[in-house]
Batch of 2 targets.
Target 1
Amino acid sequence: MKKKSRTKNQSLFARIQSFLDSQDDRLTEEMERDEEPEPPHESKLPVWGQTVEGLASGEIRFFDKIYPFAAFLLALFIIAVLLVTASRLPRFGGDSNPALNEVTERYLEDGMEETGAVNLVTGIILDYRAFDTLGESHVLFTAAVAVLVLLFDAATEKQDLLENRDYDLAGDTVFREGVRFLLPVILLFGVYVVLNGHLSPGGGFSGGAILGAGLILHSLGYGFAATEKLVNRKSYGALTVCSLCFYSLSKAYSFFTGANHLPSIITSGVPGRIFSAGLILPLNICVGIVVACTMYGFFSLYKRGRI
Amino acid sequence: MSWMNDIPLFSLIACLVCAAVSSVLKARAARNVTLGLLTAVFAGAVALTARGVLENTNVTYWMGHYPAPWGNEIRFGILEPFLTALFSGVIAACIVGGNRHLLSDVEEVHLNRYYVMLDLLLAAIQAIAYTNDIFTAYVFVEISTLASCGIMILRHTGRTTLAAVRYMIFSLVGSGLFLMGVIILYDLTGHLLIVPIHEKLVSLAQSGNYHLPMTVSIALMILGLGIKSGMFPFHFWMADTYGASTPASSGILSGVVSKIYIFLAVKVITRVTGTELFYETGLQNVLYGFGIAAMIVASVSALRENDVRRMLAWSSAAQVGYIYMGLGLGTPEAMLAVIYQILAHSLTKALLFLSASSLSDASGGSHSFHDLQGAALRNVPAGIAFTTGALSMVGIPLFMGFVAKYLFMTAALHVENKALLAVVALVVSAILNTAYFLRTVIRLWASEGNERFSPFRPSAGLVAACAVLVLANLAVGYYSQPVISVIQMGINLLG
Amino acid sequence: MASFLTNNVEVVAIVLFSIGFTSLLLHKNLVKKIIGLNIMDTAVDLFLASMGYVQGKTAPIVENGIVEASSYINPLPSGLVLTSIVVSVSVTALMLALTVRLYHRYHTLNVDEIYLLAREEVRRK
């Protein structure tokens, strides 16, 4: 294997080339390795492209025979109905459509005053219809936990895979200097998008994704160990949990005061300022932290060979 | 007692917070958190139901600072907390009873995540039950889809993963269609909250505008929920899903998750469109046909099955068929039968899945009928529990299932043009039910074939859970009248 | 027929939806199924976004303090699209994870083959 002889001061292109070469070896190696111990009945398992005998001999249940036809008919039916429906809907872009009613009017005319958000969409999703968005961030959390369940493998830390994943470009001067130059800009931009969610397009989800990408870039540029010193498993786990709890609890406070018509200590402030719009800014920060930590968390699991 | 209005909000938020916290706890602590949570949710929901019965009013609760057409809302009368209490109770019974299997089926490192998923599922169930907003319902339907997939895949076998893929595909088609329906409805009415949508739909129906899109949107929503809850032509995922999961998950998926989608469909019918408007669209005839077909076809599949858990899954599909048949009948009596059937099936199926798993433990872990011969003699508590469940499913008087079938029968007799077919289907399905359940029960108590396996002691949790479910079954079957009147009050409040 | 042309965005969204829907149901390959799922979700987003569009108006971000309903498009569908995007991302992640797991076990992406192999596995036990 060539990757053992890789030296720290090779040029970026040489390293990418050698990485690509090693990938070819790895693929064949991985296929050979996978076939041996893991599955219980390896002799039966087909390699890519090879068909299974049962398929040819028609050894499939009744369900599988009728399924394609039934699914095709269902799809055809639904498509036809939906197309006719689409043509009968209110006119596209019309300014007297049913959807433009008192609801929209209040969102547009009083939205800025009531929520303090200049970006009215943010005002709607994090204040008027905050319950939906509370659910939405937990959809993400549910999916993250479920993916972790599927991919996290505590029993086998795949040491042999780890070597192949060790392609951080920390030793490469060009790359590292590039990261040094770009990373502050990227992180700053991520923070900007998170913090300005109520003023301009953006918010927790998009900003968090930028921050997560920035962390991954840091890890590639400075080495995995360096990033783990910044944010390790414990800290991003704790951050995620704290953010989610803060999100739920602060929303509970807001719902509680709203429903019981109690005065709330959270005010909407002066629209247009960065510290305004009540809970929207902290909630955006929470969502940003959750998204960034989830993204980096999965990358870190991958690097540690746990996925 | 206005403080009681805050119960749903707090129990919902408690679920979300517990889910987040449980993700970093050890399995044992997470389990205790979840059990405490289930108790709290159950107690709160029972209290709310009691208050609902005493005061007989609906409470509307703002989720935020804005009133109805602008902000989110939840609303609860009697049925919403009643079903929440039922579902939290069933979930608690399932995890207590299925604990031994959970420990062996789920890897140690992932065990706390099982409870995270349950907390999220509980939050989603409450939100779907209480919500007064159709888009919120969609969001939480997605949470419950992901969480129920999560509680399935925690058992890491190839078969479970494949079943999960199939389940996800059907579910995703279902939620895609449901969302389409919601969007079209929004385009026509400009609202997402149920009450304003209903008002707008009534005036639209009077004016006769947008008749087709309106019908299509309602049909899409019902179809989407139907696919997710295992309505007849889309019930093929059930056997794999329930057959391959760990027993606690099977009980929860069959007893709780598919029922909450049905309750949402009931809400769409009674509250979003209103019963009158819904029955003008003619969609109930489709539901009626699918329901009748399911009662027969799924029962035949159950009869042909050689694996006890898959048999129970097919039987679930048949029971869901009863529910859709009832929705298709379209009378208030039928609606009563539908809600009672949700209650009966939820309690009985959880009991059957738990006891069946224990019986197969007494037969070397096999689910095939051949190995289960005499299992009840080796494992008497589980045998009694399974027999109770089976008798209830068959519809022997004194058990819940009898009351449900009786209600369906009387409801069907009052609908002129649908009575004949419905009665015939009910009778045929009852005969088929009897055939496959009694066949199983007789096999379980047969003394031959006893020699191969030694007697088996079921875990204390399983015995306790089964006992509670059996007692609930007998109690609700024997004192069915008060329960029926509570449900009737709830339905009146719903519509 | 004319309404197909005026509601062209909705019609395109439906066409995309049907492409996604059909591939989700009919493809044997899991990855193609997931691609179909994504097309379907995106089409729903497009459909939803088209509901909020109003001819000749701008994005609902208040500029120069103008708070008249007549100057902005309907902001609610945009908010719903955001929610729907997050949901579809989560669902896609879960489906891909399931696919990875199945591939590691059975070395194929074809659902029929996986089904047969899984059954074989059970039978041998």
Target 2
Amino acid sequence: MTDNVTLMVGLPGQGMHLHLDALSLLFLCILAPQVLASAVAGMRFSVTFWVFVFGMVLALAAGDAFTLIFGFELMSAASWLLVLRGDQRPATLYITIAIFSSACLIPAVFLPASSIAFVLIALGTGAKAGLAPLHSWLPKAHPAPPAGVSALMSGGMVKIALYVLIRYAFIVLTGAAQPWWGVVLIVAGIASVVIGALRAMLETEMKTMLACSTVEHVGLIAVGLGIALRAKAMGDPALTAVALQAALLCAVAHGLFKPLLFLGAGEVKHATGTTSLNWLGGLMRGQPRLGALMLLGAAGMAALPLGPGFAPEFLLLHAVIAAAATGGILARIGFTFALAALGLGAALALGAAVRLIGIGFLGRPRSLHAASAEDARRGPLFGMGLLAVLMLPVALVPGQVLAAMMPVVTLLAPQAEIHLLSYTPLPLILLAFLIATATGFILHRWGVRGTREAAPWNGGFGRAPVWLPFGDPTTQPSATGFAEPVTRAIARGILGKHGTDPAETYLVAPLQRLHLRGVRLAERIRRATIRQRLGVVFAALVMFLLALGLAEGG
Amino acid sequence: MLFLLRLIATLLHAAAVFAVAPLLMGAVNKFRAWALGRRGPPFLQPYYELYKHLRKTTLVPETATELFAIWPVAAFLATATAALLVPGFYTGMLTAPTSDFITLIGLLALARAATMLGGLETGFGFGGAAAGREVLFSLFAEAALLVVLLSFVLLAHSITVDGIAVAFATGHIGISVSLGFALAALLAVALTETGRIPTDNPAGHLELAMVHEALTLEYSGRFLLLLQYTAMLRLLLWMDLIGTIFFPFAMAQADSILTWPAGLVLWLIKLGIMAALLPLFEISTAKMRIFRVPEFLGAAMLLGILAGVFLFVAARIGS
């Protein structure tokens, strides 16, 4: 599509140009179901929400740098207002990051194609997408607004940032592309995967945990993009295609299951008044439909086979293995470690998903609110159902979805060689179906049918008092307890003793200290007495005269 | 015609896998008893036990949700599907194109997730504690499996289990240090995944120390049958995997019927040898503390990485 639309507003004499190509269409397709679901879930009456959506659409449809930046900033500003309305504490950090991001992006889009432009783009979009080490704001800010906005921020807004990254790294700056650009993205992505997945395993607030998982998925996408960028610069068409497909499919899948999970978390909050896993439990009884949808979303988040998250993970692992099979020895060793880190991340993501469902929705209620939860309202359920239905093609026929995304891959890397996806869920389902039929027949023909209810063995604890109809909640493992082995074995090594994010310890905290010192200095200057001020002016005069005299005389 | 042969081979393989799995468990238990100087249960004991569970009433705990019945079925289906993907004694079965190693890892993860959720279902202590430990074990196991897979792909230029088996059986790979490391790493992962000593004790009776067994504490009747059968299939799957990759001698080809009997006999012999070696290893070591297991598996992961690095160095020197 080459047609440009020029609007009569914008820069004087220039206007704003709108232009749609395969890449922006793909991201519009990722965005549309989330917007619909969030709107149905109750956000449709908020003007700020629609401004937020308009900003994202404008950024995607932009045909020139000014429109792109305008849409991007509109998105940032509107989302800041939405965060501010939810919770004031993370809003300041959020707007700081947003300003940092635009301070990097605005010069970058007007620079000629060069490595400096790429670094600025990577910093600006990485800060907005939550790529390590600039991710520590994301688990604070994304859970703050109402669920519909959180869903769109996690599923949509980070994708817009990644869209800008893809557009610049693969299309605009392609003339100056260097292999190390890819390496930067891979390293940042791997760090995001490990830290995001680990924190998702440890957080007890449901929405914070989902936001940490978003950091992980952004990392996965970044690794795919990095491998593709490196392979494209080094001229490896097959690897470029696999890695790009992995990244784009991951973006599609994440854009479906993460909003679903966030909307579900919002409904849990509505029904029970809390999203802390330590106060939930047994929600599947009161909220069977919500629970079933959350189970689907969690299967996607954990990248389980037959779920929507597996095909991208599969492609990504194939890409890393292929990257480790060729090239210089150091790069190959690096990719081997990246593979181990991705395995660790995948297992952690599985643990986090099991924890979300197992602690939150199964077992016994840990509070009366959880015990008396009623099923989700119709609007959010409809929105989640819509996303779940759209997950089906990604889960069951990923090959066809990839085939539909072919124009995007050829747009980003014209020489890419695209091979068929070798993961085909349908034969696996057929096999499982045959086994299920045979087993069902045997159990039905020879087995004793029917079930009987019985009291479970409570592990030797005494009888619970009568005012606790579901037994003593302290006799079942909490979310913190479930994560305890992981905390003890590895989290203290990676996150430090108190479990704080390394980005927080090594980046945010020193910056805050610097800021504090600067403020103190400014305050001292402001409070200076008249004598001190005169002294400074006098000293400056003496210095100036001295310098002048030395220059004249010397 | 060829398709028909391959179909028959696939069905035969499926029948053999499903029939032999309990016998393998019986053999391991018998050999273990012999090694300890006891007489041991008969070889066919697992079949009797499965039949016993078939005839028992299934109890459902009051505190369980509607999904209580789903988890054993899901775990069983995922493991059984995975077991059909691993070529036991045939290469070139109909399932060969889908037998991608990463799919296999994914299916095992699916089975693990279902078992963990089953353990969390009733909301009493031991299931949840065991699920948390299972997550911990899986972290390094998954990482180790992926790096070991890298070495296989580098040597065999194929990522399907079937392709790796064919390449290792026909190609001149020779005995390399890398494969030794990979075998050690894979054995450590296999011992953990199947819940054997030194990471877990299948014959243990102390709930505090259980991992795999504690997840199934509340299941009975049909569901327990499925879970126990899943454990047997998992043991067979891992032995198959190790046998297929490291000892692919005289494996039958699905499209030439004359190789079938020899392949089947050799497969049974291979399984018999592994079933004898496993108890020997088990009685010569002690069970580890839970928090030693990450070190054990971390060492496996490092061995896997070393296997890859050795291959890179060899490729560098060779070229």
